[in-house]
Write a structure and sequence with these properties.
The protein contains 2 helices and 8 strands, in the order βββαβββαββ. Helix content is about 10%, strand content about 40%. By secondary structure, it is mainly beta. It has a single domain, classed as OB fold (Dihydrolipoamide Acetyltransferase, E2P), CATH 2.40.50.
């Protein structure tokens, strides 16, 4: 496996189902792994877009520190968060509890993250709300189908669903 350093962060240059980025112990697999938004943007975009979580990026929960610049409620009831960090943009999504099957992995954590965000930063509306909060956010990697939403990661990588959020500054912290 070839490992490439990008802006001080190590990322996978060639995917392998059991490989972890350098510096991640085998005991860390399956746990939150720190990454940067720039490193997520640098991942190769799979073609065609996977219909299942088939890449190592999509089979891992990632944790990044970013600024949430704005947020809104989408038609599917997800809260879309626009993230900015390390000179790159990305999207994180927080699904509504009613949209999560009862057997969803980490369902309680997903619901708790959304509740923590809305109770601290306010309820989303159908229009973008400016924010500027700095957070540590965790979520499963996901490659979305290319679409017109802007800003987004260059490769349409997202954190979806968000499994945890810690407010560092902003939103009344």
């Amino acid at each position: 496996m070839k490992i490439v350093a990008v802006a001080g962060t190590v990322l996978l240059a060639a995917y392998a189902a059991t490989a972890a980025p350098a510096g991640v112990n085998d005991s860390d697999k399956g746990c939150n792994v720190r990454l940067t938004l720039a490193a997520i943007n640098a991942l190769p975009q799979p073609h065609p877009t996977p219909k299942t979580r088939s890449t190592p990026f999509e089979r891992q929960v990632w944790r990044i520190n970013v600024q949430i610049t704005e947020f809104k409620l989408e038609g599917d009831s997800d809260i879309h968060l626009v993230m900015f960090g390390d000179g790159a943009y990305g999207i994180a999504e927080m699904p509504a509890a009613k949209c999560l099957p009862k057997k969803t992995r980490d369902r309680k954590a997903i619901i708790a993250a959304r509740k923590k965000f809305t109770s601290s930063c306010g309820q989303p509306t159908n229009s973008w709300k400016q924010l500027g909060a700095v957070v540590s956010i965790s979520g499963a990697g996901f490659f979305d189908i290319p679409h017109t939403q802007k800003p987004h990661a260059l490769n349409f990588a997202e954190l979806h669903p968000v499994t945890a959020i810690k407010l560092i500054s902003g939103c009344g912290t």
